[in-house]
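Sequence design from tokenized structure. All designs in this work follow the same two-part layout: the structure record, then the generated sequence. An example of the structure record is given first.
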């Protein structure tokens, strides 16, 4: 399989690194206008093919993944449109809010289009990717796209109108989780720990919570009940979160980007 990725920025770079490190794809081409960036990728992963020419990159590709800024998508599609084989190639938009219907509108063909939103943890094969297939895309090609993104983490196939909410939960959501970790570190420092100690504690606590829920299948409230005793310190802290509107703030942050 020949995989072409157009765009090697933060998100594209994370996907590429995850795929390259996996060793499961034998032919990956990266296209980007940033030559020094391409040189860095080539040095780190010599097996990659790199080019600044988008047209050459998409020729003979089986899957083309477009990971450029949404406002650049039309320019890139107009540039490569005449060399795409839309009857054969799988075209994937990883650009926020650039849907399969928009791909069809720009390319003028009912092709094998997919809209996928992963997150930057793809570099460490820990992404959460949301996959929506276009109206003309086949289930066979959906399986290929699922398998591709499963290399870089978990996947879930959703209706296209749920990709945006998924993005808020898992892509933007990474930043919200980071903000909580930072706050926990700051609290640890205020209570007497050195910053690196506070970071270690916060990260391991987050890891422990995730591992516990994955291993047991518990609802979070079940786990909370395990560590919350009547009149204890945990319930006092939980009530402070509630008094500060913690749940409401999280929900509002997730919905903010959909307005």
């Amino acid at each position: 399989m020949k995989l072409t990725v157009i765009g090697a920025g933060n998100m594209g770079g994370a996907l590429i690194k995850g795929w390259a490190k996996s060793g499961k794809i034998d032919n990956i081409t990266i296209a980007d206008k940033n030559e020094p960036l391409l040189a860095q990728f080539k040095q780190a992963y010599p097996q990659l093919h790199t080019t600044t020419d988008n047209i050459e990159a998409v020729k003979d590709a089986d899957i083309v993944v477009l990971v450029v800024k949404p406002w650049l998508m039309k320019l890139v599609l107009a540039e490569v449109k005449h060399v795409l084989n839309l009857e054969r190639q799988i075209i994937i938009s990883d650009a926020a809010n650039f849907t399969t219907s928009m791909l069809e509108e720009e390319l003028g063909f009912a092709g094998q289009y997919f809209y996928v939103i992963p997150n930057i943890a793809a570099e460490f094969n820990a992404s959460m990717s949301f996959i929506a297939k276009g109206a003309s895309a086949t289930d066979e090609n959906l399986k290929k796209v699922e398998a591709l993104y499963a290399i870089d983490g978990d996947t879930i196939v959703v209706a296209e109108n749920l990709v945006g909410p998924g993005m808020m939960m898992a892509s933007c959501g990474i930043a919200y989780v980071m903000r909580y970790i930072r706050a926990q570190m700051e609290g640890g420092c205020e209570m007497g720990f050195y910053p690196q100690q506070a970071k270690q504690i916060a990260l391991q606590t987050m890891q422990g919570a995730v591992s516990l829920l994955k291993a047991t299948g518990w609802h979070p409230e079940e786990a909370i009940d395990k560590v919350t005793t009547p009149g204890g310190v945990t319930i006092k802290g939980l009530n402070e979160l509630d008094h500060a509107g913690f749940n409401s703030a999280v929900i509002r942050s997730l919905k903010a980007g959909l307005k």
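The radius of gyration is 21 Å. We note this feature because it recurs in several other targets discussed in the main text.
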